[in-house]
Design brief:
This protein is of the alpha+beta class. It folds into three domains: 76 residues; 152 residues, Trna Endonuclease, Chain: A, domain 1 (3-Layer(aba) Sandwich), CATH 3.40.1350; 158 residues, no CATH class. It is built from 16 helices and 18 strands. The protein is globular, with a radius of gyration of 23 Å. It starts with a helix and ends with a helix.
């Protein structure tokens, strides 16, 4: 990512892009120009799926980039990202998974297509789309011609590569879904609106084309409608639906005791500094699915910086779920064993690992009392660092307590 940023610095300087955007309102750059002035692969340089991945030289000028043709991109002052609430306010509905399906495990949905397939065979998609549907679109294709207005700039799109995780056709609708394992707080309009406009251009008014975001935040499947009106895109959380395909189980956090001599967590790994446990689970699922994956590849999956990727992958290592060597993250036998469990059993085992650690255990059982400094010494943490690390501890305690309460309500 740093090399890409350096490349964009060279491009902006060589082509005087700020001056050209100021003069015309936008600047169209070709893949050949990107390659010439950056020395980098154009496809990777222009793959900016999350707001956090905008190069600093663009961000400083309030600029972004979108593809308009095969090998041509438009740079200007516009915001091509849709903000999304990372936590659902919708109450999950329980759906039974059909017992005759044996090739898909609803307790181990490690990638986007598996989550969507589980939603289809269980009847969840019928509930979301309001009619019976069949999977008719999946994968990459080239867009037809259409004009996409955004923030006062027109984007004449032609032959751009688009990708649909799942497209489902019913009697009256075509429903396009962009799916992710784990939450995101923003997504690019190229992922969401380009496919919709492409299919609207292709089929005309014969059927309504709708777009949805699907987050699999284990064990919850969220479906969020996307609204595009008059050049403005937004996530329609007021009509969001959430579902769960899990057996009911009870997590008794109060029974977990501190054990500084437990095999896990691993003492030689940095103490956690990764607040979002949904992201921890999502990264774990991806590593399970791939068995081993580079940190650079993980960077493309999450709206995180490389430093944050390191924090979250270190958390998985801290729990004994992965090993990390030369920036390659690989699943461990312990991680494989835990991944094979149902979500309820998985959460129970992870809670046992996390809350047997004395600092986590202290905050879990004595929330309002100060954590003794001696508990941080075994992690070589001192000074002002404990206060920052306790943010993660409190966030995880809140997460597991909320999970425990949700399970109790379902009993």
């Amino acid at each position: 990512m740093a090399l890409n940023h350096d490349g964009w610095n060279d491009i902006f300087s060589s082509l005087k892009i700020v001056e050209r955007v100021d003069a015309k309102g936008y600047f169209d750059i070709t893949a050949d120009q990107i390659k010439k002035y950056s020395g980098r692969e154009p496809r990777l340089m222009a793959k900016i799926d999350f707001r956090e991945h905008i190069p600093p030289v663009m961000h400083k000028q309030g600029m972004a980039i979108l593809a308009i043709a095969n090998g041509t991109y438009r740079i200007g002052r516009f915001d091509p990202f849709i903000d999304i609430e990372p936590v659902s306010i919708a109450t999950p509905s329980s759906f039974a998974f059909p017992g005759n399906i044996i090739t898909l495990n609803p307790q181990k949905l490690a990638h986007e297509s598996a989550a969507l397939d589980a939603a289809l065979v269980s009847g969840i998609l019928h509930e979301v789309f309001g009619e019976d549907v069949a999977l008719t679109i999946r994968g990459r294709s080239r867009s037809p011609d259409f004009v996409f207005p955004l923030n006062g700039i027109d984007f004449p799109v032609s032959g751009v590569q688009i990708e649909v995780d799942g497209g489902y056709e019913g009697a009256t609708t075509i429903n396009l879904v962009e799916a992710k394992v784990g939450p995101r707080d923003n997504l690019s309009v190229r992922q969401l609106i380009y496919p919709q406009l492409a299919w609207e251009s292709t089929i005309g008014k014969r059927k309504a084309v709708k777009t949805f975001i699907c987050f699999y935040q284990e064990p919850i499947l969220r479906f969020i409608p996307v609204v595009y009106e008059k050049g403005v895109c937004r996530a329609d959380h007021s009509n969001e639906l959430a579902f769960i395909l899990e057996p009911i189980a009870k997590l008794n956090l109060g029974a977990i005791k501190a054990d500084p001599n437990a095999a896990y967590p691993l003492l030689g790994v940095p103490f956690p500094q990764a607040d979002n446990f949904d992201t921890v689970l999502a990264m774990f699922n991806i590593v399970v699915n791939e068995e081993e994956i580079s940190k650079d590849s993980l960077l493309l999956e999450f709206d995180l910086t490389m430093r944050q990727i390191t924090y979250y992958s270190d958390v998985l290592k801290w729990m004994g779920l992965v090993d990390i060597k030369q920036a390659i993250v690989s699943i461990t036998p312990e991680g494989q064993a835990i991944a094979a469990l149902s979500h309820a059993e998985k959460m129970k085992r992870l809670a046992e690992i996390i809350f047997c650690e004395p600092i986590f255990n202290h905050v879990l059982h004595k929330r309002n009392s100060e954590v003794p400094a001696s508990l941080f010494e075994r992690w070589n943490i001192g000074g002002t660092t404990p206060e920052r690390r306790l943010k993660t501890v409190h966030a995880w305690v809140n997460y597991f307590e909320a999970f425990s309460k949700q399970e109790a309500l379902r009993l």
